[in-house]
Structure formats: C-alpha cells, structure tokens
Amino acid sequence: MTDQNNNNESFEELCAGYVLHALDEKEREEFEELLHNASKEQTELFHQMYSVANQLAFTVERDEPSEKVRQELMKKVRVKSKDSSAGVTPINDQDKETDTSGNQFFAIAASIALFIITLSLVFYSFNLSSQLNNKEEIINQKEAQISELKSEVQRKDELLSILESRTVEMVLMAGLDVNPEGYGKIIWDADKQQALLQVSNLPAVPSDKDYQLWIIKNNQPVSAGVFAVNDPQKDSFFKIEQMAKSSKEDTNAFAVTIEPKGGVPQPTGDMYLLGNLNE
User: Fold this and answer.
1) Is the pTM of this model over 0.70?
2) At what angle do helices 67-77 and 93-163 cross, to 10 degrees?
C-alpha cells in the first residue's frame, strides 16, 4: 500500500509539470518511465490532464482561469474508481482504505494541476504586459523621432525658401576669446526680412541663461531674439523672427552674447560670436 501511494504521489507530482512542459530533462525521463508502467487510472489521469493543458491556448488572455475552466478541470481530473470485475464484491475495510487513497490521489492531482495552470496564466499575463510596455516605449521613441524629423524638414524648407531669393546675404560669425571654437552663420534675405541662424560648437547654457542674437544697426545693438543650444556637438538652426526692419545699408554686424533667460534690452554678458556684414 505504501509503495503504491508513493508511486501515485510521484506520478501526480510530475504529470502536471509534464503536460505543461515545465520539467527538466531528468524529471521528464523519470515521468516517462512512470507513464510506461502506469496503471489504468494513472494513464486516464495523464490523458485528462494533457487534454486540459491543450485547452490553455484558448484561455491565456485571462489573468486567472474562469470558473467554467476550473469546474471542467476538476471534473476531468477526478477519476472515480470502478470495479473491473463482472460480479459484485463486498467492501471490506481494506477496500475502503484503498478507495479513500485513490480519491485523495486524484484530488491532490487536480489541485496541483489547477495551481500550475494558474501560475502559467499569471506568468503569461505578466510577460504579455511587459511586451506591451516595451512596444509602447518603442512607439513613443518613434513618435519623438518623427517629430524631430518634421522639425528638421521644416527648418530645411525655410532655409531653401531663403536661399532661393536673389538678394540673399550670408554673414559668417567667428568665435571670440571666451569660446574660440564657436562658429555661426546668418543667411539673410534683407528684402523679405527673413533670416536663419546656424551655430555650432557653442556650449549648453545654464537653465537661467539664454543666448541672445544682436543686430548691430547703425553701430547700435538691437535684439533679434534668444535661443538655447541643447546639443553642443550638433549644428543648431534657428529662424530669426525679429529682424528690426534692417537693411544692408544700415546693418554693420551680427553678434551672439549670453544673457539672463528671456533676454535683455542691451547686451550685458560675454560675446561668443561676431560677424561683420561687409567683410
């Protein structure tokens, strides 16, 4: 009786893992040997649990198995003992013990199968949630890249619009002592009062500072707006919105200084770039 109980326990412990592909190679070989020598009841249990495991493919979208699946599982794995003889044999105390042991065996098997299936569903749900989060992150990255590309296309369209003008002027700006590696370029259509600023090798400014572009008009600085550099390693382009109705005749130069955030009426900070119009 003890050997039979041990055999049943080993069988039911490994059976649920086997049908769910959760055993290692050694455990799988052990179960296949048990299955080869299995009793009729054990073989029926294996086929029932195998059938239930195959149905997982249709229930994996739930976080937990539904009550219907639970009931079906319990119904299928509870295999009642049947008398294999044609006659009727009186039940003695030993038969009662055997019957109770068999019921306990299948009840434990059902519980373990349900537990493993539930764990499988929870794992699948967690894995699916992780995949969705990763895909959302990728989508957000792609959307940011698309937005950046649109901005780049818009800047290039504005640049082309200015370059197509027959009266375009180009003013080169060189770095000064505070930042000798700096470089700038003004592409200016004086007739249409349109201009683009290109800068490179300018350091990023603190959060309370801005770069400010100045038009030196009749030898007096006039603000043409503020800008910030996010990546010093890349060329940055800015559309100049405030040209102060400047003409080539009254414009002497362009300059860039660092000022308090938002800009100031007159330059107060270090000058980073300077370009004379008539050079």
Assistant:
1) no
2) 140
